[in-house]
Amino acid sequence: MIVTRRKLIGGIAAASGLLGGCDRLGENPAFPKILFSGEDAHRFLQRSLTDRMALAREYRPDQMSPIFRTNGSTNPGTPEYQAHVDSAFANWRLQVDGLVRHPLALSLAQIRSMPARTQITRHDCVEGWSAIGKWHGVPLKLVLDQAGLRPNARYIVFHCADLIGGAPYYESIDLVDAFHPQTILAWGMNDHLLTVGHGAPLRLRIERQLGYKHAKFVMRVEAVDDLRRIRGGKGGFWEDTTDYEWYAGI
Predict the structure, then answer these.
(1) CB 10 within 8 A of CB 25
(2) CA spacing 20 to 30 A to 207: which of 116, 125, 132, 232?
(3) Nearest to residue 59, comparing CAs of 167, 131, 140?
(4) Mean pLDDT by 10 residues, the chain (250 residues)
(5) Whole-prediction pTM value?
């Protein structure tokens, strides 16, 4: 029997009694060390032996999960975010900046008017559960092409509205994942606009990585040349605070 990384993570999480939520995994200081022991070897093999542009499996509508959990942060809860909710995000803008030639400030209407991709994929959480849902959104590639990346851009950083321990959530990916055809900025789920619990008005879907990389409540997309100058320098909130691995490929 082949033991996949997802099954291994799920088994470790279950054995550790840590299935209460991704946002609570860090309460057990031993978990990251157990979870990511041997991760460097796995990551090296995965990046060396797999095609990172290969597509994640897509499913039929009848295979969609009846329940898709709202995991992690379910509402930023700030006055600024609540004002956006109250106005149906009419005044919300996605900022696209950093190492780009043409900084953007895109309204939700503008984003929804861009060519969209719909994909039914499986979300795999670091705590071991999974669910299949339908996502609708603009390929990140189209947004980056419109902004025009500068030659020294190497990573894309997603700054979010939700706060964890008083610090804004953020994540990052490299350009291989940024230009993957299934990497989208999703504005819809299961034939409806995103709900607050699932990251309205915009969330990242990066289908070949674990759930903590799928940033919700995205407010800003920044192109950078180096992750070491961003916050704790490891490329993401959980990477900085709980020693999660930056590359969470599955």
Answers:
(1) no
(2) 232
(3) 131
(4) 44 42 45 46 51 90 97 94 98 98 98 98 94 98 98 98 92 97 98 98 96 97 96 94 90
(5) 0.82
